[in-house]
Amino acid sequence: MLSSITHAAVRAARPATARASALSAIRRGNATAASASPASALTTRSWEYIKVSLSETGKVGIVQLNRPKALNALCSGLFHELNDAIRTLDNDPAVGAVVLTGLPKAFAAGADIKEMANTHFVDNYKSNFLGHWTEITQARKPVIAAVQGFALGGGCELAMMCDLIYAGDNAKFGQPEIKLGTIPGAGGSQRLVKAVGKSKAMELVLSGNMWSAEEAERAGLVARVFPADTVVAEAVKLGEQIASYSQVATQMCKEAVNKSFELSLAEGLHFERRLFQATFATKDQKEGMKAFAEKRAAQWTNQ
Ligand code: CO8
């Protein structure tokens, strides 16, 4: 991982760099550059449930769930902060990808059982309980989950809302809601089936058992497994690679893959072909293919 220390170093280093360039911009009398970018402003904001940092290049936003006393149990306030951070990173042109991670012991041990235990259907219905908990799926930029420790219930569902999952070798995935007399509420009976198929999903949901990182990888829930202390760094590395491409193309890739969950094969292929054709209206497609022919690196303008 960016071990906790390395991770902290990234967090600490970035604001210092941002401050230094802001100061030099002030010296140059450049008021626009002097104001912090939306993403860098997140890194100095005071959060209750999360921490936000940027990679060295500033192109990858790193959101860390940070509620250690409750193993990152997901409460409403946490989701308000998470949504706010993801929305800001998604809208910042300097950011090309986002990594969502947790703590070494838990990515998230589920929805906050104590917060919801005594709520009732009518109140939950009227307040649209969980309604804003899926906003991360609306992000246009790729979001990579870097999971260490427990990813249970809503924690597993949150990881599945991301575009792909990298797991530390200590990760444990499960949908234990059955043990609480309830059922998954945000994708454990839907996204999980699409990720691993009916039989494996049924087993996880009906037994409440946990999968090791290795089992989750074998089932197709997880893209890759790394030593736990390297998984965040590996996710950031992938984020940097994604952020080095045209943002128009990466967003279209993500949109096309996600459509495969919603559309029939014929409709999906039609949608993919239209988007592919549409890339020929972009400067980045012209630049990418020209650069290939000229044997040089492409200079993307995200246009
Ligand atoms: N909610 C609230 N508090 C929690 C949760 C949780 N989900 N998980 C752990 N905690 C708290 C514990 O109560 C404990 O607090 P305290 O110290 O005050 O007693 C602290 O975190 C540490 O936990 P443990 O002492 O239990 O730690 P262990 O290492 O012994 O056990 C486990 C770790 C196995 C993860 C255990 O804590 C556990 O089983 N947790 C509950 C897991 C669970 O059932 N999750 C599913 C919740 S229901 C759900 O997620 C519905 C999804 C709805 C949609 C969500 C959309 C994203």
UniProtKB/TrEMBL annotation:
GO terms for biological process: fatty acid beta-oxidation. The keyword Lyase applies. InterPro entries: ClpP/crotonase-like_dom_sf, Enoyl-CoA_hyd/isom_CS, Enoyl-CoA_hydra/iso, Enoyl-CoA_hydra_C. Gene3D superfamilies: 2-enoyl-CoA Hydratase, Chain A, domain 1 (3.90.226.10), Lyase 2-enoyl-coa Hydratase, Chain A, domain 2 (1.10.12.10). Signal peptide: none annotated. Its EC number is 4.2.1.17. Keywords: Fatty acid metabolism, Lipid metabolism, Lyase. GO terms for molecular function: enoyl-CoA hydratase activity. GO terms for cellular component: mitochondrion. Belongs to the enoyl-CoA hydratase/isomerase family. This is Probable enoyl-CoA hydratase, mitochondrial. It comes from Allomyces macrogynus (strain ATCC 38327).
